[in-house]
């Protein structure tokens, strides 16, 4: 079951300048940043709020790390802006299978690694009214050591 907006992915040319815009304009701080080589992005996660399912919603700022990446291709064509939305679920495998059964193309055979150790897959934008849609299961929260 999809229970939250996990994040909105925003493509940008210059991650540091875009982070500074969100900080100076809205007061949002970087919660986490990483490079995802497989996806070809450098990203910053700005946490907006906790959600009632125990997760959270983020803005995800994305700068491409190589010209053949999905985000670089999209920026070439569209310029900066909203690249995708991501719904959070406790079970990305089950939700992806159920959505596939409804005739929507799921882009990965098996979920791949996403931000902060999450497991992610994508739905084809052409099957989702023009919106590239991601499904995310967050990494389990580490229990504190005793
Ligand atoms: C492409 N299209 C989009 C789109 N990207 N439409 C809406 N939103 C987008 N983001 C449209 C194009 O305009 C084009 O339509 C058609 O889809 C084919 O696009 P293309 O430019 O020829 O590119 P393809 O077919 O090679 O690839 C598109 C596809 C790809 C969606 C399959 O971008 C993909 O696999 N994306 C999933 C991975 C991804 O985006 N990773 C970056 C975020 P027309 O009408 O011109 O034919 S990584 C991430 O987000 C991770 C780190 C995380 O959340 O943790």
Automatic annotation (TrEMBL):
Gene Ontology biological process terms in this record: L-methylmalonyl-CoA metabolic process
Keyword terms of this UniProt record: Metal-binding
Transmembrane feature ranges: none
Residue span, VOC domain: 4-138
Matching InterPro entries: Glyas_Bleomycin-R_OHBP_Dase, MeMalonyl-CoA_epimerase, MMCE/EMCE_epimerase, VOC_core
Gene Ontology MF terms: metal ion binding; methylmalonyl-CoA epimerase activity
Similarity section: Belongs to the methylmalonyl-CoA epimerase family.
The name this protein goes by in its record: Methylmalonyl-CoA epimerase
Organism this protein belongs to: Streptomyces zinciresistens K42
């Amino acid at each position: 079951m999809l229970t939250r907006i996990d994040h909105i992915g925003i493509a940008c040319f210059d991650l540091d300048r875009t982070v500074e815009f969100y900080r100076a304009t809205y007061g949002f701080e970087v919660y986490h940043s990483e490079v995802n080589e497989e996806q070809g992005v450098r990203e910053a996660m700005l946490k907006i709020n906790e959600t009632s399912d125990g997760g959270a919603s983020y803005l995800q700022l994305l700068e491409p790390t190589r010209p053949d990446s999905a985000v670089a291709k999209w920026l070439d064509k569209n310029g900066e802006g909203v690249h995708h939305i991501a719904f959070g679920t406790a079970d990305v495998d089950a939700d992806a299978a159920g959505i596939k059964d409804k005739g929507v193309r799921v882009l990965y055979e098996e979920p791949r690694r996403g931000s902060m150790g999450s497991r992610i897959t994508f739905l084809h934008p052409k099957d989702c009214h023009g919106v590239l849609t991601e499904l995310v299961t967050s990494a389990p929260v580490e229990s504190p050591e005793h």
